[in-house]
Amino acid sequence: MIDHQVRVRPSADRLPREDQLAWKLAAVATGTQETDHLDPEAAGMVVNRLIDNASVAVASLARRPVGVARSQALIHSARPGASVLGAAPGVRVSPEWAAWANGTAVRELDFHDTYLAADYSHPGDNIPPLLAAAQHTGRGGADLLRGILAAYEIHVALMKGICLHAHRIDHVAHLSAATACGLGAMLRLPTGTVHQAVGQAVHTTTATRQSRKGEISSWKAFAPAFAGKAAVEAVDRAMRGEGAPSPIYEGEDGFLAWMLDGPDAAYTVALPEPDEPRRAILDTYTKEHSAEYQAQAIIDLARRLREKTGPLNRVRSVVLHTSHHTHHVIGSGANDPQKYDPTASRETLDHSVPYIFAVALEDGSWHHEHSYTPERAGRPRTVELWKKISTVEDPKWTRRYHDPDPRRRAFGGRAVITLDDGRVVEDELAVADAHPAGARPFDRDGYTRKFRTLSAGIVEPDALEAFLDAAGRLAELDTAGLAGLFPEVDTDAVAAYDAQLPKGLF
């Protein structure tokens, strides 16, 4: 890896484009190796993530934000165009709108892959716009594979090197840059073109974290889809010769100077050398439970503690000792009263670790729908327990959250449960069971099992096997074969659902 130093530069410096971070990101993307030189393990993980995305997208087809995004996309028919999950097989729309619809479906349940470092994000959000552009431009599975690996490489590097959430900037700014780079790799664009696309994408997708604060709305699902759509549009403009604000990161009125650490900002972003295998996707991990990633280990911990706690009406208090990030983003340290509100939205509840721990402790399980219903959230005994749960930041867990050694890095915490007789029950869990270092790491069978579970009753058995076969042969697929990456569903039922949604401008 090569460490690139990034700092704010005055306009008078006329920073050469080759010294700009956006150019260096673009150079990594456009220098991505040919398919037959790609790391086999990383290529296999791309297949896993295609299966993972399809699992959660299929399960969200009858959810309102997904129906809205799909309805908006279907107005924008195009040829060759790209597929929309849930639409009839022959329907094609403009690729940026396919990215919007499919990206929303992937993100809605907060149930796909994650990476946590200096910043955090869901790198699987890169896949819908890349797949849409691949279909529209006549690329095959090998090109798509190369683009996905490049997008993950850039996304992980930015999350390791530049923290956005400390400044309350939403993480999709890194996503749009990564998607633009992935598109550049897939389409074999010149480095200069990708450099301009990155600048446009970052400039148009820098937003605040209010989408994940207070009354969290459906925009949490739309935000990464918007970034993917913006990246496709940025690449289109750059291919037509249009430029971007530059330097987008280092400029004195730019991203680092005014959105992040200010005029004295300095960061280190580590990027692979030209011949270095693109393996960043292997650093990322998926979710077994539909909730914020920092809650994954907490759910598993709660299930384990049920046997030790006894009747839950005897619980006097629960304190979760965890990292700075968990405490301040999904814990009581966020100071969001909505995180204790039984009438809060699903999007708020999946960012409330006190709620999640209470339900997991009571039920001994977690379900992507049942655990979030208004009836479940409003159950009196749940509310009583929920309000007894708080979080505190523990320096030990903050250090482990940022530990450079993946064997030591941890996203869990320690639960201290005090009962009414003064007895204390406690236990801790560093990583979720499904994490690569966990008790039951996800492998291909795990991803396949997740797809079979979430698609039950939605995808017929023959269609299910056809999708898994297509995903497993990704590198061999031609353009027409990419349609096999969209599991067949009852499109009439989907259309009937969409028909009852409110109408908009178009």
UniProtKB/TrEMBL annotation:
Residues of the MmgE/PrpD C-terminal domain: 289-466
Gene Ontology molecular function, alphabetical: lyase activity
Residue ranges constituting the MmgE/PrpD N-terminal domain according to the UniProt record: 33-266
Gene3D superfamilies xrefs: 2-methylcitrate dehydratase PrpD (3.30.1330.120)
Region: Disordered, residue numbers: 324-345
Coiled-coil annotated residue ranges, if any: none
UniProt-listed Pfam families: MmgE_PrpD_C, MmgE_PrpD_N
SUPFAM superfamilies referenced in this protein's UniProt entry, alphabetically: 2-methylcitrate dehydratase PrpD
Source domain of life: Bacteria
PANTHER family from the UniProt entry: 2-METHYLCITRATE DEHYDRATASE, 2-METHYLCITRATE DEHYDRATASE-RELATED
Record-stated family: Belongs to the PrpD family.
Name used for this protein in its record: 2-methylcitrate dehydratase
Species the sequence originates in: Streptomyces silvensis
Phylogenetic placement of the source organism: Bacteria, Bacillati, Actinomycetota, Actinomycetes, Kitasatosporales
